[in-house]
Amino acid sequence: MKQLLYFCSPLDSYSGYGAHARDIAAALLTLEDYDVKFILTPWGNTPNGALQEPQWKHLASHAVSGNLNRPDVYIQLTIPNEFQPIGVYNIGITAGIETTICNSEWLIGCNRMNLVITTSAHSKHVFKSTTYDKIDNNTKKVIETLQIVAPIEVLFEGCDTSIYKEIPKASIEPTISEFMSTIPEKFVFLCVGHWLQGGLGADRKDIGMLIKTFCETFKHAAIKPALLLKTSGATTSLIDRYDIMNKIYNTTRIYGDDVPSIYLLHGSLTDTEINSLYNHNKVKAFVTFTHGEGFGRPLLEFSMTGKPIIAPNWSGQLDFLSKNFTTLLPGQLTPVDGSAVNDWVIKDSLWYTVDYPYAARIMQHMYTNYDVYLAKAVSQRKYANANFTKELMESKLRMIINSYVPKKQEIIMPKINLPKINKAV
What we know:
Layout: E1 3-9, H1 16-28, E2 34-40, H2 57-60, E3 73-77, E4 89-94, H3 104-111, E5 115-118, H4 121-129, E6 132-135, E7 142-146, E8 152-154, H5 174-180, E9 188-192, H6 207-218, E10 226-230, H7 238-252, E11 262-265, H8 271-279, E12 283-287, H9 297-303, E13 309-312, E14 327-329, E15 331-335, E16 350-354, H10 356-368, H11 370-387, H12 390-404
Parallel strand pairs: 1-2, 1-3, 3-4, 4-5, 5-8, 9-10, 9-12, 10-11, 12-13, 13-14
Antiparallel strand pairs: 6-7, 15-16
Helix pairs in contact: 1-12, 5-8, 6-7, 6-10, 10-11
C-alpha cells in the first residue's frame, strides 16, 4: 500500500524557492512507494505562473486543495518559522540562512518537524551553532537553552543540465539576442540577484557596492567593459523597475561622463532565456559581492557555461564553487546594517563583506587577461557536472527519505487459536 505524501511549497512562483520547489516536486514523483500530492502556496509578492511553462505543466495535475486527509508524510518547503507538523511524519525543507545566526522562531519551527533538510553546509552549521539561553530573572542563571534538536541533512539544489548548459550562438533565444544587440560593449560582467532592502553596502546581494567598485575600477579605461544587472526588487512591476533605475543612477551620478555602462535587465525570464543570457558571447563572467547565500543557485547554473565566476569566499556557494576553478574573493565578517534587518536577517548577526579594492583588481585583471580565467572555468563546469546535477540531487533525496521515513505498517490480522474439535466416532 502506498503512503500518502503531501508536498506544500510555492511551486507556481517565479522565485528562488519556487525553482527549488519544482525540483523537489519532480524528484518526489519518482518515489514508487508514495502517492504524491502538491499543496500550492504563494511566495511573498513574487508572481505566479511557472507551472504554465511546458517543462512544469505535468506538476500541476498533482495539485490538491480544500479539506484534505492527514498524510502519512508531510513535506513543507518554506522558511522554518512557518513549518507545521501536519502529517504522521514531517519534513521541513529550507534554503536556510545567509548570516551567522538564525531567528529563534526558526529553531522552534525546525524542532516541530521530524527531519529538516537544508541546502548547504553553511546553513546546516548556522542552524546547529545557533543557541538562545533562557535566564532566570532572580538567579540570573541559565535555566533552559533553545537549540535545534531535530536531525538535519544537507541536500544541494541540483542543476538541470538539460537546460543549463553550453549552447551555440545559433541557439540563443531571439529575445536575448535582441536585448544584447543594444549593448555595444564586447565584454560584459553579469550579476544576477534581487536588489533588496538596505543602504549602500547593506543590501544582501551588495549590488550597490558592486556598481560603485565597478565604476571606480573602469572609469578611466580607454575601452570600458559593461556591467549587466539582471535584477529586481520585490516584484517585476513598472514601479519596481523605476525604483531599480533610480538606485543605479544615485550610485553612479558622481562619476559623470566617466561612468562605464551599466545595463538593467528587469522582469521575468524563462529558464531557456536565462541560459541564453549566460551563453551570449558578450557575457564574459558572473560577478557577485553577495553578503551571504543559503545556496546560490544562479552561480551553479552559470557555471555550466564554462565561463569565469567571481564570488565571495563564504557561505552556501562554497559547496559547489571550487577554489581551484573560480575566483573567491577575500573579505571579513561584518555586522548586518540596521537598514537590512528583517524577520530572518536579524540584528546582531554577521555576514560577509568582500575586500572591495581586491575585487577591483580581480575585475581589472580578468578584463585584460581573460583567457587565464577561462581555462579554470572549463574545469569548474566539469566539476559541477560531475557532482551537482538534478539527477544526483534526486538520488540523494530518495536516499534521505528511505533512510528516515518509517515504512507504513501493513495491517496484519492477529492469529486466532481455535478450540480443538473432537472428531465424531
